[in-house]
Amino acid sequence: MMFKLNIITVSLLAMSGSVMAANFGVGQANTESVNMEKYQCKRCVSETGYSGKVTLLTGYNSPDDLHAGNALGTAEDGAIAAISGDLRYLNSTGYKASMQAHQLGLDNGFANLKVGKSGLYELELDYQAIKTYESGDARSQLWQNDGMLTPSVYPNQFDLALQREKSAIGLSYDEGRYNTFVRYSQEEKTGTQSASLVAPLPTNFGLPVDSTTKQLDAGASLAGDNWLTELSYFGSYYSNNIQDLSLPYLSDVYSAAPDNQAHQVSLSGQYQLDRTVMSGRLVTGRMTQDDSLIQMSGNPLQSWDGEIETLDGRFAVTSMLSNRLRVGASVDHSKRDNKSSSWEFTQYSYNALSGAFKQNVPQDIERNTYKVNASYRLASGYRVQAGFDRKEVDRSYSEREQTDENNLWAKLNVTAFDKLNINVKASHGVRGGSEYQVNELTSSEDNILMRKYYLADRTRNALELKFNHSPLSWVSIDLTGRYALDDYDATIIGLTESKDYGYDLNISLQLSKNLIAYGFAGQQWIDSIQAGSQSFSSPDWQADIQDEFINLGTGFSYSGLMEDKLTLGGDYLFSNSISDTYLEGSALVGSDLQYGDYFSYNHSVRMYADYALSPKMALKLSYQYERYYDTDGAQVGINTVPGLTTLGELNHDYNAHQVMLSFSYLLR
């Protein structure tokens, strides 16, 4: 059993500390003179036997494009069938079982089975299938068969899709204050994804995927009156069934992902002292990878002998100093010690073999995060919160070895008004660090004025407003607005400014006893400015990148028709994303260099009619429609660009339909 308490739970524990110390618990009440029969809960009855629902589904699928399978649950064309269910069993002695299933038989579905005895033990079996679709019209001039890539003037067509099947078994044992658990899972990942190699020109091809990931988790926990602790182990084992790929005239031109392992041991605990709660966690880990390397001229290593040791720790404390004031603080430490092999390798330049030697350098990363916060109730319905966060990062062998981020924030919660809640949060953050050294540890092809955005100095100001209002008993409105400005004031070449702002609006309507409706709208804008240099010196061009995202939706449910036997409903969703890039500058005069834009939209409609044949049986007819379109300027034909072989234009433009008839049977 995992003991994980969120901040709300911790706060409740802290506020209840004085009561618990005085021991005014229900278990201490004197009930000898109370007639319990008069106070029995007439509705709190645990029904024994079987209960639940089983649903059989059958229908017709017309995806028109493989990508539609992401929304329809399967990309199969034609008749489809599946089964869903939610079954439960309980007997008078406490033995119980439950089974849940969702669309088993389609490409995306899951099943879960639990059996055990209440308050003692539980055995769990789990299965999940997830398939993601990218394109059904990818083409390659490299035919792959059993590790051999064979060039051909006639491209072969294949699907870009990944299938994951994960099965797991877990057992937990609970005996009062002592709990243990163990869980083993295995995931099989198959399919085809895009990859590229230089042979001798840049060529894209379909890379087969066939890998297995095994996961073993186990732990034990012990709890007392005001404390708890847990010792856990987490192990991951990855094996790739695809070997290195070769060309007919050249062996091992593409290296397969190597097998690897990762292990972690975690010790965590929590202690409550009156109105103060302290918690801590210490995690040590080790990741290894020792597969053989492809042998080539200039490579002195037979295997990589990769090893990374990790150490993570956290200590947090929160305390109620008074009925109005609560304070908290936390310290997080994370260290990544790379102990992998290092050796001197011959370096390649753009033109020829330089003859110089350079040693690969294993990078270490260490992070420390410090947080302090306070919450004070000004008056009934008014609470103010404030905090300060600091994050320090040390990276060895990096352009910038040290960065530090300081963030100051404040929040005001107002619940004093009837049917109205308001939350306002503002923050100001600054990132700085050690001297930025471009040429010392990076490629000489980098401009010395260029700064990577995640290492560069940055000032961030952000504001967020949340608004919840119920003007009428049948209307609920939620509105969230946010704005953030990132200023990279020390960057000459690179990302110099970014604005991120938007809103989310949700409306729920109870129009009548039988009619429920909802609607939502959300938009986000991200405006970025990037400076560059075509002459490898000072900035001579600028890119203004404008990204926009829109999500709209509405729906309804109307019940009570035909003597309360028929329920009608529908949902409509619309999403749209646009990315435009505008270039200007002296380096572009007389040049046709322009970035391609990206545009996509999606319309989705779902309608259903649910009819009760009897108190235990029901029929449901549903229809789903999707209209999807996207166009990406980066997508080009197989040989459109001289010297570059792609997988073709993988944009989408389709209409997809699905009709489904389901029969449900209620066991109780």
Summarize the structure.
The chain has helices at residues 7-15, 17-22, 69-72, 438-441, 561-564; strands spanning 49-62, 78-90, 95-104, 109-117, 121-145, 148-175, 178-198, 202-223, 227-240, 245-247, 250-254, 260-273, 276-289, 306-320, 325-338, 344-348, 353-359, 365-379, 382-395, 402-414, 420-433, 458-469, 475-487, 494-510, 515-532, 541-560, 566-584, 598-612, 617-632, 653-666. The strands form 3 sheets. It has a 26-stranded antiparallel beta barrel. A two-stranded antiparallel ribbon has the order 10-11. A two-stranded antiparallel ribbon has the order 16-17.
**What is the overall shape?**
globular
How far apart the termini lie comes to: 31 Å
User: Which regions are unreliable across 5 or more consecutive residues at pLDDT < 50?
Assistant: 1-43, 349-355
Radius of gyration: 30 Å
Overall pLDDT metric? 88
Helix content: under 10%
Largest sheet, strands/sense/barrel? 26 strands, antiparallel, barrel
Total helix count? 5
Oligomer: single chain
Description:
The chain has helices at residues 7-15, 17-22, 69-72, 438-441, 561-564; strands spanning 49-62, 78-90, 95-104, 109-117, 121-145, 148-175, 178-198, 202-223, 227-240, 245-247, 250-254, 260-273, 276-289, 306-320, 325-338, 344-348, 353-359, 365-379, 382-395, 402-414, 420-433, 458-469, 475-487, 494-510, 515-532, 541-560, 566-584, 598-612, 617-632, 653-666. It has 668 residues and is mainly beta. The strands form 3 sheets. It has a 26-stranded antiparallel beta barrel. Strands 10-11 form a two-stranded antiparallel ribbon. A hairpin with a 4-residue loop joins β2 and β3 (95-104). The protein starts with 6 loop residues before the first helix and ends with a strand. Pfam families: MtrB_PioB. Residues 1-21 form the signal peptide.
